[in-house]
Amino acid sequence: MGSQAESPMALRRLGPIELFSSARHYMRLYLSVTVTCRYNAPTSGQGIDESLLYPALTRVVSAQPMLRVGILGEDTSKAAFCHIKTIHLANHVSFETLDGCETVDQYNEHIASQQGWHHSQPWLNIQDVPPWRIAVVKPSPAATGELSRVQEIIFSFHHALLDGNSGKLFHENLLKELNHQLGQGAANTTTTTTATLQFPDAPRLPEAQDQIIAFQNSPWYLVKTLWNELGPPMLRAKKHIPWHSKPSDFSIPYVTLTKAVDFQGPIVAKLLKACRQHGTTITGLFHALAAASLASRLPAGEASSFAASTPISLRPFLGPAADPEFKQSLRVLVTSQEHQFPAPLVARLRTSKDADQSIWETAQRVKGELNRKVASVPKDDINGLMKYNSDWIGYFKKKDGQPRPDSWEVSNIGVFANPPEEAGFAVSRVCFTNGALVTGSPLALGLGSVAGGLLSVGISWQESVVGQEFIDGLAGDLTEFVTRFNETGKFVV
C-alpha cells in the first residue's frame, strides 16, 4: 500500500449531477458518452499519426482541467476529483487501420460497432488515470474515393467529467490544434511528440453546476417531487406507465450497441426550413418521427402511450458567480425535460388520415415544452433537488426490476462549425451516442450535425433489452420518412 504522500490529492467533491453519473458508472449502469468525428484530410494520404496528434492533443489536455483529473471514492457519496500529475498518452490513444471496408456504408457500420464497444468498457484505475480515451480509425490503405481522405476520431469519456456538448467542444479544439500542428510542418515534430505529460501543479477545476446556477424551487415543486419519489406507494397517485420495452434489469450484461442514420446537407436544409415554418426544431421533429415509427410498429395493446426526455445544455444559464475563465471549458452543465405522449395522441399517429399533420403537431408540442422549460430555468428544476439525495448508489439499487420512466431520449449536441480556413483538416460527420441507459430509456437518439453538411442520428440501446430488428425498423422508418419528405414534402403517403 502506498504512503499518504503518494495518494492522489483530492481537488473538489463531485457535485450532485456528477455524483449521479459516478454512481451509475460504479454500478455498471452507464459507462460513457461518445462523440465521434470524421476528419477529412486536405490531401489524399495525409494521415493523423502520433507525430501530428500527440502535440495537438497535449495542448488540448493542458488547456482543459477536466481531462487531467481522476475520481477518488467512486463507491461512496463523497467522491472527489483528484489531481493526476502524470498522463501517459498511450493509455488514452489507440490507432487502428481497417481491412475490407470498401464502401462508406461498410465503414460506417464498423465505426458504429466500435462506438458501441467503447460504451461497453468500464473505466479502470480512475483514481490514477483520467477516464477518457480516443481511438483513431482509418479505412484500408486500398480505399478509394471519399474514403481515401478520411479518418475517424472516437472520443469516449466518463459522464461525471464532461457532457455531450463538451464532447463536441473537444473535437472543435482538437481540430484547431491539429491544423495548427499541420502548419508547423515537420521541423518541430521531433521535439513535440512527447507521450508523457507532467502536471506537477494541481489544476483549478470548473465549478459544479449547482454552485454557479441559482436553482430555485418553489415549495409546491419541492413537496410534489419529493412526495412522488419518496411518499408511501399506497398514498401516491397511480402513475401511468408508458411503453418502455423491458423493466430495468441489472442482471443483463452491460453491452451497448449503436447504429447511425445519416442525412445529406441539402435534405437537412430542407428539414430545417420546414421546421421553422411549422414552429418547431430538428429535435422536436425527431421526437415526433420516433413516436410515429414506434406507434406503427407496436400494437396499441402493448404501447398505448409513450414518454420521452430531452437533455438541455445549461451553458447559457451560468450565473454571475461563474468564473469566466471556465466559460469554454469541458465540463458537465445539463438538465432535461420530460415529454408525455398520451394515448389519444399516439392513437392519432396510428390512425390519422393526415399523419403528417399529427407528426408536425407532435413536433410542435415538444418544442413548446422545451421553450417553457428554457424560459423557466433555473426555477423548479430537478437539479435543484439532487442535493437532497445523500445516497445515489442506494437510489439506483431500488430501480432494479422497476419500469423504466420513458420510451426514448433525443439528445442534440448541435452544429459543428468548421473553421473558415480552407487549408488543413475539416470535420464532415459528427456521430454522438449515449451509452445504454439501464435505468432510463430503452433507446436513445443522439443528434449531431456539421454546418451545411451531414446530420447524423446515432441510435444506442442495450443488447437484449431492445432487439436489433426493432432498431433496424426504426432506422429504416427515419430514413424513409425523411427521404419521402425530401421528394414529396410529406413524411407519410
TrEMBL record:
InterPro entries reported for this sequence: Alcohol_O-acetyltransferase (IPR052058), Atf2/Sli1-like (IPR010828), CAT-like_dom_sf (IPR023213)
GO molecular function, one term: N-acetyltransferase activity
Pfam families: AATase
SUPFAM superfamilies: CoA-dependent acyltransferases
Protein name: Alcohol acetyltransferase
Organism: Metarhizium anisopliae BRIP 53293
